[in-house]
Amino acid sequence: MSLYEEIENTLQRAFTPDELEVTDDSRQHAGHAGARSGGHFSVLIVAEAFRGRSLLERHRLVYDALSPLKSGIHALSVRALAPGEI
User: Fold this and answer.
1) Structural domains in the chain?
2) Which of 8, 11, 17, 22 stands the most exposed, by the fewest C-beta atoms within 10 Å?
3) What's residue 38's pLDDT?
């Protein structure tokens, strides 16, 4: 299973999102030093778990869910929304 698929599966299990888009942006960062230590990813996730939470809390929830995969992730851009916020 690719890291992309692991991220997607992990977020699906953790949040049962209404919407989930995971994008592998690694090609855009090829050549810089950090690119060798892991991939670059963007995540758009819409889930009830984010309702009433601050931006920081939402990001922490996502980072905590993905913590077992952190050695493969060099950079992660997160957009975490509650249903109706998109």
Assistant:
1) 3-23+30-81 (3.30.300.90)
2) 8
3) 64
